[in-house]
């Protein structure tokens, strides 16, 4: 999404709120963009930044052709600063460096923008440092914070931002779009359960790492069903080496969540809702014999809890070990 008109097609309310602010010359000093993966947070952040620096705007629309627009799109504009987690979190030293950068005059103008990805991963110290930054806003400084979990942002930060909630994209139309562009129907269903980002969906579908992750998930469900005594060994020999960084670990838990959801769907006779397995997959029936409905509901809650632990920087190997033991009980 490179224009506000494109954003308006998928996020009509959010685009209307921000466009009205731009038209009135009242761009907020701080935005908190909240939405699931793929709902357009980064695209909107880029459009806000381009709107502040573009040399040839058409109304509210940036031209996307001038030097400023191109550098912002590529992440190379000297007065647009991106901050994202180093490892599991955004640390206080990163915020200190950002603040130091902002004590200098802008390289090309006095306008400055900083965009904080995964802002829910700010450590307590880093969050307090950002709060001080927000409490003393410069008229020509704009903060844009992106998150999938606004409830993890401390209330004092939320209260100083204009919160913009992004709505989940239409799953059916997204699946149809993937199929129209050559993706197999079963793959499109899985991708639509994991992301609303077209580029990301096609990238994952063609990625060898992701294909191996899907195989490992099938094998893990098989272990839970047939050889539960070998699960712990499987976790250490296969899961831990494959799911290395935080994003991969979260994706592994997302796949595990979808697999167990499908097994629950089998119990309630809703095979048409499968996302991970296909209706022809015999493993679903076998697994359903091993897990009661009540146990499956508990497992889904346990996986969600494990995802929260990852975001709280609990040691990843410990998280999956505990989860595996809890699933077996």
Automatic annotation (TrEMBL):
Catalytic activity: DNA(n) + a 2'-deoxyribonucleoside 5'-triphosphate = DNA(n+1) + diphosphate
Enzyme Commission no: 2.7.7.7
Species: Oceanobacillus longus
Recorded superkingdom: Bacteria
Record protein name field: DNA polymerase III subunit delta'
Claim: Nucleotidyltransferase is one of the keywords in the record: yes
Higher taxonomy: Bacteria, Bacillati, Bacillota, Bacilli, Bacillales
Keyword Transferase: yes
One Pfam short name: DNApol3-delta_C
Entry keyword set: DNA replication, DNA-directed DNA polymerase, Nucleotidyltransferase, Transferase
All residue ranges annotated as the AAA+ ATPase domain in the record: 27-169
Molecular function in Gene Ontology: DNA-directed DNA polymerase activity
Top enzyme category: transferase
InterPro entries registered for this protein in UniProt: AAA+_ATPase, DNA_pol_HolB, DNA_pol_III_delta_C, DNA_Rep/Repair_Clamp_Loader, P-loop_NTPase
């Amino acid at each position: 999404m490179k224009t506000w008109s494109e954003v308006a097609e998928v996020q009509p309310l959010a685009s209307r709120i921000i466009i009205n602010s731009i038209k009135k010359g009242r761009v907020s000093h701080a935005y908190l963009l909240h939405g699931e993966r793929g709902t357009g947070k980064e695209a909107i952040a880029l459009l806000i930044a381009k709107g502040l620096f573009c040399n040839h705007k058409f109304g509210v629309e940036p031209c996307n052709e001038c030097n400023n627009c191109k550098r912002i799109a590529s992440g190379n504009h000297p007065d647009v600063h991106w901050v994202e987690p180093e490892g599991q979190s955004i640390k206080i030293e990163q915020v200190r460096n950002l603040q130091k950068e902002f004590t200098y005059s802008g390289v090309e103008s006095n306008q400055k923008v900083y965009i904080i990805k995964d802002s829910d991963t700010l450590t307590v110290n880093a969050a307090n440092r950002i709060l001080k930054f927000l409490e003393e806003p410069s008229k020509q400084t704009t903060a844009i914070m992106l998150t999938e979990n606004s409830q993890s942002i401390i209330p004092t930060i939320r209260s100083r931002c204009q919160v913009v909630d992004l709505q989940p994209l239409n799953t059916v139309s997204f699946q149809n779009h993937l199929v129209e562009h050559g993706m197999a129907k079963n793959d499109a269903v899985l991708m639509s359960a994991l992301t609303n980002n077209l580029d990301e969906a096609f990238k994952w579908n063609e990625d060898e790492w992701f294909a191996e992750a899907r195989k490992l998930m099938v094998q893990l469900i098989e272990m839970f069903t047939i050889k539960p005594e070998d699960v712990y060994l499987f976790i250490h020999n296969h899961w831990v080496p494959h799911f290395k960084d935080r994003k991969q670990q979260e994706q592994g838990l997302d796949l595990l969540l979808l697999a167990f959801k499908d097994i629950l769907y089998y119990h309630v006779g809703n095979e048409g809702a499968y996302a991970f397995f296909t209706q022809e997959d015999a493993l679903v029936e076998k697994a359903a014999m091993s897990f009661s409905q009540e146990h499956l509901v508990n497992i889904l809650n346990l996986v969600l809890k494990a995802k929260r632990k990852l975001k709280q920087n609990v040691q990843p190997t410990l998280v999956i070990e505990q989860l595996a033991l809890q699933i077996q009980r």
